[in-house]
TrEMBL record:
One of its GO terms (molecular function) is sigma factor activity. InterPro entries: RNA_pol_sigma-70-like (IPR039425), RNA_pol_sigma-70_dom (IPR014284), RNA_pol_sigma-E_actinobac (IPR014325), RNA_pol_sigma70_r2 (IPR007627), RNA_pol_sigma70_r4_t2 (IPR013249), RNA_pol_sigma_r2 (IPR013325), RNA_pol_sigma_r3/r4-like (IPR013324), WH-like_DNA-bd_sf (IPR036388). It comes from Streptomyces aurantiogriseus. This is DNA-directed RNA polymerase sigma-70 factor. Belongs to the sigma-70 factor family. ECF subfamily.
Amino acid sequence: MGDRKQAGDTEFQAFVIGRWPRLMRTAFLLTGEQHAAEDLVQSTLEQAYVAWRKVASADDPEAYVRRVMINAHSRRYRRKLREFLAPKDDSGLTHEIADTGDHISRADDRHTLLKALAKLPPRQREAVVLRYWEDLTETQAAEAMGCSVGAVKSNAAKGIAKLRAVPGLAETVTHGGRK
């Protein structure tokens, strides 16, 4: 039994090392704050570790963990929704560790975009993050969010429309961050 546990621990460690940057980016885009993102990823990985045998045997362990993270995010911020959507300051929005492979990290108006993203309602933010930053299909996003494909389409469209209405973001949203 000890060898099997050690193999599971090694497999989990490799999963965490390989997925940490992407999980952090998704969590940051969902929460809008570096520390909240770190807490969200940490609590998600704690849950994944406890159920690692089930997670590892899933068709797509990363999708499974992403779903756990989205559920944890939804539960955590449901009560504090108004306070969360209108942070008193935007200092937390500027501390993301840049990912050089991330198109958003190269956008000139990154600060404006992150502020606007943080003001979207949670479901719209989730849909926009999963569809456009995580590049998931509508079906994958629906599975991650626990809703229908139509709900993903609707929330993503509404979120993008709100982002387009922000002065200075229309070109970024229309051209996917490329100038």
